[in-house]
Design goal:
The structure is a single chain. This protein is of the alpha+beta class and 352 residues long. It has two domains: 73-186, Sandwich (Tumour Suppressor Smad4), CATH 2.60.200.20; 191-343, Reverse transcriptase/Diguanylate cyclase domain (Alpha-Beta Plaits, 2-Layer Sandwich), CATH 3.30.70.270. The protein has seven helices and 21 strands. A six-stranded antiparallel beta sheet has the order 5-4-14-13-10-11, with helices on one face. Strands 7-6-8-9-12 form a five-stranded mixed beta sheet, with no helix packed on it. The longest helix has 18 residues, at 200-217. The N and C termini lie far apart (107 Å).
């Protein structure tokens, strides 16, 4: 015997209503940044004797949303793909001749330190219609686009330009927001997250580059290494947040006193390093003493605390005749030895 059909015994039982059918449709001129959102709901009617009767599609709500989709202009940029500046984005800034010079010469708009690159290696020319032309300037090691050696060619988006043996830059088009994002990402990759000084990784890349520059140009190369005296006592007494603010204030003071061509890096916890280009022994000693005085001459006001902070400073200068017989690792080791002497001598002093 068949089981009775309960559906027939309960004509008033309701069926689940269909879910909302949402449609997103574009209306009007395709050039307008306007979208119309249309929501429809199926109408269900039920009667005891007729059961479910699907009704017509009724528009229950129509909502027009004006979305101001900002049309940002994209500009040509060069993205560094290798070397010390890997990840750095540089918007093309043409000179009065609508040219950008690429080479080892510091006056070039795009400058590399590599000895494999000619002083005036290549140039990018912008034509009136916006076309970019790349030309090799009879360089020693050639200019390549997408692994093909060229003398002159037009550039397309995402072309990879190689100058010398290892330096690669990529042509990309970015708007202002994207450029700002790239700048922020690059800055984060080379900076200490707390103090804003360069980080240890960047320091080791940079010292190799500067070492090569000093050797080629036969100029002195110097390093200053310093750290905060009794920093552990500061953390233990006042807490790590206060210690962090001391580090930030220290970097702020020192950054204002160094030249643009010199760099300040956080070498360790409370230890910092400065690399000085073309600075002799006397100049390096003067800078080391200046840093010591910058820290000790004025208290650090951290919240409700007024702290007297001092640093010990070690410094080393390699003259042009010494450089060929030394290495960056030896420069760091010698600076570390001098820092040790400053601490052993009573702290709050320099040694070199």
């Amino acid at each position: 015997m068949r089981k009775p059909n309960n559906r027939n015994k309960h004509p008033n039982e309701t069926l689940p209503k269909p879910s909302l059918d949402e449609h997103l449709s574009h209306h009007g001129d395709p050039g307008e940044d306007t979208f119309e959102f249309v929501m429809r709901q199926k109408k269900a009617e039920e009667t005891p004797d007729k059961g479910f009767q699907p009704g017509s599609m009724n528009i229950t709500q129509t909502m027009q949303i004006n979305l101001p989709l900002e049309k940002l202009t994209q500009e040509p940029c060069l993205l560094y793909m290798s070397g010390l500046q890997a990840g750095k984005l540089w918007p093309l800034s043409f000179n009065h001749n609508n040219l950008i010079n690429i080479g080892r010469d510091p006056d070039c708009e795009v400058s590399f330190e590599s000895p494999e690159i000619s002083r005036r290696h290549a140039e990018i020319e912008r034509l009136d219609d916006g076309t970019l032309l790349l030309a090799d300037l009879n360089s020693k090691n050639g200019t390549f686009v997408n692994n093909h050696k060229i003398k002159r060619c037009s550039l397309q988006p995402n072309d990879k330009i190689q100058v010398g043996a290892r330096e690669i830059i990529k042509l990309v088009y970015q708007d202002q927001e994207e450029v700002a994002c790239w700048h922020q990402l690059y800055r984060h990759s080379v900076s200490d997250w707390l103090t804003g000084a360069y980080n240890r990784r960047y320091f080791f890349h940079y010292i190799e580059k500067e070492w090569g520059f000093a050797t080629r140009h036969q100029i002195p190369f110097s390093m200053i290494l310093f750290d905060i005296d009794h920093f552990k006592h500061i953390n233990d007494t006042y807490g790590h947040p206060v210690g962090d603010r001391v580090l930030c204030e220290l970097v702020s003071r020192v950054q204002q006193e160094i030249r643009q061509e010199d760099i300040l890096a956080r070498y360790g916890g409370e230890e910092f390093a400065i690399l000085l280009r073309n600075t002799n022994q006397q100049g390096t000693q003067w800078q080391a003493e200046r840093i010591r005085q910058l820290v000790s001459s004025r208290p650090f006001d951290i919240g409700n605390q007024r702290l007297n902070i001092t640093v010990s400073v070690g410094f080393v200068c390699y003259t042009a005749d010494i450089l060929p017989h030394k290495s960056p690792q030896e420069l760091i080791a010698d600076a570390d030895i001098q820092l040790y002497h400053a601490k052993e001598g009573g702290r709050n002093r320099i040694s070199g």
